[in-house]
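thread: overnight batch results

M.L. [08:02]
morning all. the overnight job finished for the chain we discussed friday. pasting input first so we're all looking at the same thing
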Amino acid sequence: MGIVDRAAKFQERIEKRIKKIGSGDYGRVLKLAHKPSDEEFSKMLEVTTLGVLILGFLGFGIFYLMTVVVFPG
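M.L. [08:03]
and the structure it wrote out:
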């Protein structure tokens, strides 16, 4: 078996795997997915920003407690 035949078989295996993606669980998800509207996008942006801010303030609060209250100096 020459290198060309081996490469052709390898390519066929890869193509079969790629074709399976569209028919399995990933295919169902991709069929249901859609581009968000401007309203959906802005709402997701607000919620994500609020979550990041809350986590940031929580982390800063823990940092402040550890550096000033628990281990001063």
